[in-house]
Structure formats: structure tokens, C-alpha cells
Design brief:
Layout lengths: L3 E2 H7 L16 E3 L5 E8 L4 E8 L5 E5 L5 E5 L9 H6 L6 E5 L6 E5 L4 E3 L5 E5 L3 E5 L5 E3 L5 H7 L4 E4 L4 E6 L2 E6 L4 E5 L20 E6 L5 E5 L4 E5 L5 E6 L4 E9 L2 E8 L11 E7 L5 E6 L4
Antiparallel strand pairs: 1-16, 2-3, 3-4, 4-5, 6-8, 7-8, 9-10, 10-11, 11-12, 13-14, 14-15, 15-16, 17-18, 18-19, 19-20, 21-22, 22-23, 23-24
């Protein structure tokens, strides 16, 4: 087991320095309890594409929900933020820029964001990685508090927070490029695993994150973490005792950026040339599903041939 307290890990000086940040496509993908899949198609301003927020419904049909695609996506299952005045909170600089899109046919909603990962936890509050260094709690009434004081002293050396997910009970999980953190809602936390090292990485030559370049993640009811190892071109499973196992590879130049769990199925958002610095090429997303029997099915592919 490779769990360490965050403070002791920092004291040992084991954390890698932050990688240079650059533009990248989104990691946002969520699945409702009924199996409706929502994902972001990030726009590319260099070639004047605005992106989309897409739905794959229970029948497999693909449709655009909104003609704007951000980077991160959270599912507001119970509709606790249905009455939130995000525009006013942003104008007052008490909350970041957030966009809520109602899910047709119920009280649930989708909350999009640029600039930081976010998640609506089962306690009804929204948590986001402010400046990609700290985790902030946002209540439906618009009140914000830091969850872990001075967390930035650790995450800055880890390369920043690249993904955030809700775990069982009172636990959040976060990815940094080479680490998975678990953080309790009382402000305590530890490194579930650090460093994350993959023997057969298959590193992409244009990757801008240090290996394995963890981004989007999801957690099942048993506390098993699934994360997109973007720099290594695969999805990894991290068991509650800290074992890391690659479970799904993407053929180059496709790279995973986000994941979602629904029952025994794993949904993976991938982008074509996700780490490319060639901004003349449009990022293209696709969604694949990995079943419990190991079978992989492509649910949607967007963009140019």
C-alpha cells in the first residue's frame, strides 16, 4: 500500500515540479443513473469552433444540448443548484464562471466550467479546484470556503490539480499529473498513490504533461479510482490499496482525457491529438465504453475524417 499523508510526502520532497501549462481539450464526461451520457466537445478559437455539449441518450442517439463546450463538466443529480445565480456570484467575484444547463426531463442539471475541474458531491455542495491548486466548497446559497488550507503548497509541486471526482461517503479524489489524492470533507487528506508509474507508458511525443499525465477521473461505489493517463495513452484503475493497473489503451493519436463510471461500465472521453500543439488541426472527441466483460464499444465519434 502506497498511502502517505500529504504533509509527510511534501516533507520528503518526492513530488515532481509542475509542468508547463498549455491549451488542451476537455475532460468533461458524466453519466446519469439512467445511463444518459453527456460530454464536452471543446472549441478551438484558433479555427473558430465553439464546441458543443453533447448527449448520448439511452438508445444511443447523439444530440447537441448546447452550442458551447467547456473543459470540465459536473452532474447536479438532485438539482441543488437549479436556483443558483451563477452570473451574479461571478460578477461579485465570489465564485468562478459557471454555466448550468438543465437536463431535459427532470430536475438534474449539468454544470460546465473552464479553468478548473469541479464536481457536485452527495452532500449537495459543489467543489472546484480554484487556480488548479486548492479545493473550494461552494454551497447552493453561494457561500465559498477552502476545504484544505495551504493545499496549494503541495499541489503546486505536484503539477496542479487536473481532475476532481466524488468518492464514497465524505471523500473527494483528485488527480495531479503523477499522483492520486484522497481528501476528506473535514479537510484531512492523503496521497492514495504517488508516484504513479507505468512500465509500458507508450508516451506520446507531443504530450505536455509529465508521465503518466493523469487528468479526468471517476470513482465507483467501492472506492476504486479510474483515471485518464493522457500522456501514456491509456486509462488506469487504482485500487483502494494503491495498486495501479492499465485497463484500456487508445490507439495513437487518440488519447483519453476523461472518464465516468455507471454500474460496471466505464465510459471514456478521448480526443484525437489531445496534446498536439498544432492548433490548425481541430481536436476531435469520441466516447468509448468498456464493459465488465472487457468488450469495448465506440458510442460516438465527432469531427472530420
Amino acid at each position: 500500500m502506497r498511502t502517505r499523508s500529504l504533509s509527510s510526502s511534501l516533507a520528503l520532497g518526492l513530488f515532481a515540479l509542475a509542468a508547463t501549462a498549455s491549451a488542451h481539450p476537455g475532460s468533461g464526461i458524466v453519466v446519469t443513473t439512467t445511463g444518459r451520457v453527456f460530454f464536452v466537445e471543446t472549441g478551438n478559437p484558433d479555427i473558430k469552433t465553439s464546441g458543443n455539449l453533447w448527449e448520448i441518450d439511452e438508445t444511443g442517439a447523439l444530440k447537441s444540448l448546447k452550442r458551447e463546450g467547456a473543459h470540465w463538466l459536473a452532474l447536479d443529480t438532485e438539482g441543488t443548484f437549479a436556483g443558483a445565480d451563477f452570473d451574479r456570484w461571478f460578477a461579485r467575484r465570489t465564485a468562478p464562471r459557471l454555466d448550468r444547463v438543465p437536463v431535459p426531463g427532470g430536475n438534474a442539471g449539468l454544470i460546465q466550467a473552464d479553468g478548473m475541474p469541479l464536481v457536485v458531491h452527495r452532500d449537495g455542495n459543489l467543489y472546484y479546484a480554484s487556480r488548479n491548486m486548492e479545493i473550494t466548497r461552494l454551497t447552493p446559497e453561494g457561500m465559498t470556503t477552502l476545504l484544505v488550507p495551504k493545499l496549494r503548497l503541495i499541489t503546486d509541486k505536484l503539477g496542479g490539480i487536473k481532475g476532481l471526482a466524488s468518492g464514497p461517503d465524505d471523500t473527494l479524489f483528485a488527480t495531479c499529473p503523477g499522483a492520486v489524492l484522497q481528501i476528506k470533507l473535514d479537510g484531512t487528506g492523503s496521497a492514495l498513490v504517488h508516484p504513479v508509474s507505468l512500465e509500458d507508458c507508450g508516451k506520446q511525443p507531443t504530450a505536455d504533461l509529465s508521465e503518466p499525465g493523469l487528468r479526468g477521473l471517476a470513482v465507483d461505489d467501492h472506492g476504486t479510482v479510474f483515471a485518464a493517463a493522457t500522456s501514456c495513452g491509456c486509462v488506469v484503475k487504482v485500487t483502494p490499496d494503491g495498486r495501479v493497473l492499465p485497463i484500456l489503451a487508445a490507439e495513437s493519436p487518440w488519447l483519453p482525457t476523461g472518464v465516468a463510471v455507471h454500474g460496471s461500465d466505464l465510459y471514456v472521453l478521448e480526443y484525437y491529438d489531445a496534446n498536439s500543439n498544432d492548433r490548425d488541426r481541430q481536436w476531435r472527441p469520441r466516447v468509448r465504453k468498456l464493459g465488465p466483460d472487457g468488450q469495448v464499444k465506440t458510442l460516438a465519434t465527432l469531427g472530420r475524417d
